Prior knowledge:
The protein has 479 residues and is mainly alpha-helical. It contains 21 helices and two strands. It has helices spanning 3-30, 36-56, 65-90, 96-107, 123-137, 140-146, 153-162, 165-168, 175-199, 204-215, 233-246, 250-257, 262-265, 268-288, 296-311, 326-338, 351-369, 386-411, 417-428, 449-463, 467-474, and strands at residues 378-379, 382-383. The protein has a two-stranded antiparallel sheet with strand order 1-2. β1 and β2 form a beta hairpin.
Amino acid sequence: xxxxxxxxxxxxxxxxxxxxxxxxxxxxxxxxxxxxxxxxxxxxxxxxxxxxxxxxxxxxxxxxxxxxxxxxxxxxxxxxxxxxxxxxxxxxxxxxxxxxxxxxxxxxxxxxxxxxxxxxxxxxxxxxxxxxxxxxxxxxxxxxxxxxxxxxxxxxxxxxxxxxxxxxxxxxxxxxxxxxxxxxxxxxxxxxxxxxxxxxxxxxxxxxxxxxxxxxxxxxxxxxxxxxxxxxxxxxxxxxxxxxxxxxxxxxxxxxxxxxxxxxxxxxxxxxxxxxxxxxxxxxxxxxxxxxxxxxxxxxxxxxxxxxxxxxxxxxxxxxxxxxxxxxxxxxxxxxxxxxxxxxxxxxxxxxxxxxxxxxxxxxxxxxxxxxxxxxxxxxxxxxxxxxxxxxxxxxxxxxxxxxxxxxxxxxxxxxxxxxxxxxxxxxxxxxxxxxxxxxxxxxxxxxxxxxxxxxxxxxxxxxxxxxxxxxxxxxxxx
Length: 479
């Protein structure tokens, strides 16, 4: 393990973060707002820490898998830590614990917030919150590697550590091409949504901020009431469309944009993903109609938005779901756990693993009925190995165990069960809102400090898909 090489690559990531802080400060300076200095001073630390390794450490294209894993995990942790600086320097509601929570929530695209009044914040801080979503959504390492000049072993190792294994199975390109596809689709969707929201009635600043949050499937809004603030079916429809798109594998979106539209619908994963969202919407709408909403149009409007928002791990809200029936809450908690597809910016267990689990259950039933039968599991035109099946099922077990343990720890702070469980599930899935006292139009600011730190650890575990963070802990540093 070569610390100097690790520091060099982490330095590049810190410089990227500093650049976005400076951009936020420039925006604030144009508005003559008071957060210019907090953003500029906040950018100095990651900028200086990033520049020194680039100056004193020679460039290398050869890194080991262990070094790549440490670079990825350390980059996430240090980016979150650097992201707290503008918040702490600005003050207000941002104690260090609150700033850490907001920063981790931003970079992991969770979208949970400690803020009780978002709208009093100056534009620079709001833009920095949105930027933390945007650079965290595509993945800090993927973002950096996509603009590096040449393919190298280092690029390949880092991309293997950053991109979900399920996502890599669906890419059919070289590493550099894969990274360029990811960033092209990501930027393209962001521009399209910004234009669409601007044309739908949002001002340009809000359109950019909400586009950053939507495409990152994050959920940070510039308004206290989230999307409910606008009370606009048109805006909700635009955001719903882009939330669904952002939950689909970016490689498939690239093929569709290249004229191969059938590639999307030929995907078993996409068909299950869209079908599950429709079924969830119908079930929730039936539960809400007559009691919460009188008309079917309004019922489907809010049911579909909330299901899509949670089912893509975005976390926007068009209505206050805290008073919705228990049946509707349970359906939404399921989507909080599942979320969308691999190869997207979504969190959660992922649709692919749910399909693998269903197929394995079906295969087990067949084997019980016909013990001598040879059952072969197929997934997206490929055969599933025993190792791939075991890994997917183990991930689901560990995932649910983390949610359960986190819920237990939160209840130790006096938090009620509904808030603890839904908040833990939302943190693990990088979804944002839960139920109880952390529902769609509420916030996490009232939780004890210890509970906030637990939730940030859970957010990072979810964003790094558990194994990345755990493996990094157990790596033995060696020469």
